[in-house]
């Protein structure tokens, strides 16, 4: 596992800032130890420094993964968060969207959230702001990007997309054939 280059570290922290803002420091300095981000085969892993030291005795070819995969860099050097990062980012999310119970399944199938499926939204969220999508029972379902600001959502048409789908918990089932 190698350290992220300066360019990739900048991309990662900008993306984290889009979803959790200044709470990035709480991801790194946790009560149970210090955590860091490492890269292996274009994937970004979130791992404690204690486990990282233990993994140094393995070569890169022997190592499959260490820690939690947060995302993958594409060939154009863009970072896409994996759903495995959801439970680490959800407690620190600054902007949230709650979907109606009747729309949860549609979201988990990979659809965008229209205004008619929107139950609640945090105040003062800007357009293209990263959000965590929740069910009404406060279960994190996935990541999204707001298509409209909070004020624009109030006057939008019921079929207008309010939140663009990024990733969701349903990916495990949809990608079941390709994972193994």
UniProtKB/TrEMBL annotation:
GO terms for biological process: ribosome assembly. GO terms for cellular component: nucleolus. InterPro entries: NIP7_N, Nip7_N_euk, PUA-like_sf, PUA_sf, Ribosomal_synth_fac_NIP7, UPF0113_PUA. The keyword NADP does not apply. The keyword Nucleus applies. It is found in: Nucleus, Nucleolus. Required for proper 34S pre-rRNA processing and 60S ribosome subunit assembly. This is 60S ribosome subunit biogenesis protein NIP7 homolog. It comes from Drosophila pseudoobscura pseudoobscura (Fruit fly). The gene is LOC4800247.
